[in-house]
């Protein structure tokens, strides 16, 4: 997932640069319970 501004760090605690460099993944950050809902809504067949 690509973020467009550095304010993401204030929201979730990880700097935008971590995501830009692909060292951190969005699904690795959100809670497991949230992931199931995200996957269902993002990858609908």
**Sheet having the most strands:** none
Question: Could you tell me how far the N terminus lies from the C terminus, measured between alpha carbons in angstroms?
Answer: 20 Å
Q: Estimate the mean pLDDT confidence.
A: 78
**Helix content range of the residues, please?**
55-70%
Number of E-state strands: 0
Q: Specify the number of helices.
A: 4
Question: In one word, what is the shape?
Answer: elongated
Secondary structural class:
mainly alpha
Are there runs of 5+ residues with pLDDT below 50, and where? Answer: none
Tally of structural domains:
1
Give me the Rg, rounded.
11 Å
H and E order: HHHH
Please report which band the strand proportion falls in: under 5%, 5-15%, 15-25%, 25-35%, 35-45% or over 45%: under 5%
């Amino acid at each position: 997932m690509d973020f467009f501004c550095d304010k993401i760090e204030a929201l979730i605690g990880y700097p935008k640069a971590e995501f830009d460099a692909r060292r951190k993944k969005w699904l690795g950050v959100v809670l497991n319970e949230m992931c199931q809902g995200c996957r269902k809504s993002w990858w609908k067949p």
